[in-house]
C-alpha cells in the first residue's frame, strides 16, 4: 500500500469533493478515509488515499491535483504518508 495525504482548502463551492474524487477514481487511486468541514464559507478536506494502483506516477498526480485546484479555485496539496510518519518520530 502506498498512502498519501491530500488536503483541499478554499472558498466553498458546489462540486469540490466530486471533482477531486472523480480525478482520483479515473486514475485508480483509492480513497481510504475522508473528512471535510465548512467553516464560515471556507471548505477544508483531508483525505488519506492509496495510490499503489495509480496509472500515473506520484509526481504527475501531485501536479495534476495542483492544476485541478487552480481550475476549481482551491488549493490542493498531496504528500506521501512517510512525511507525516517521520515528522512524529523526531
From TrEMBL:
Top-level taxon of the source organism: Bacteria
Stretches assigned to coiled coil: none
PROSITE patterns referenced in this protein's UniProt entry, alphabetically: ACT
Span of the signal peptide: none
InterPro entries linked to this entry: ACT-like_dom_sf, ACT_dom, UPF0237/GcvR_regulator, UPF0237_ACT
Domain ACT residues, every copy: 5-79
Annotated Pfam families: ACT_6
Family statement drawn from the similarity comment of this UniProt entry: Belongs to the UPF0237 family.
Annotated protein name in UniProt: UPF0237 protein D2E24_0448
Amino acid at each position: 500500500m502506498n498512502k498519501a495525504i491530500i488536503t483541499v482548502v478554499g472558498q466553498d463551492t458546489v462540486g469540490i469533493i466530486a471533482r477531486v474524487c472523480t480525478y482520483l477514481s479515473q486514475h485508480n487511486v483509492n480513497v481510504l478515509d475522508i473528512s471535510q468541514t465548512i467553516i464560515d464559507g471556507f471548505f477544508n478536506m483531508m483525505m488519506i488515499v492509496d495510490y499503489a494502483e495509480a496509472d500515473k506516477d506520484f509526481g504527475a498526480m501531485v501536479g495534476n491535483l495542483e492544476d485541478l485546484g487552480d481550475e476549481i479555485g482551491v488549493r490542493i496539496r498531496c504528500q506521501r504518508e512517510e512525511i507525516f510518519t517521520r515528522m512524529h518520530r523526531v
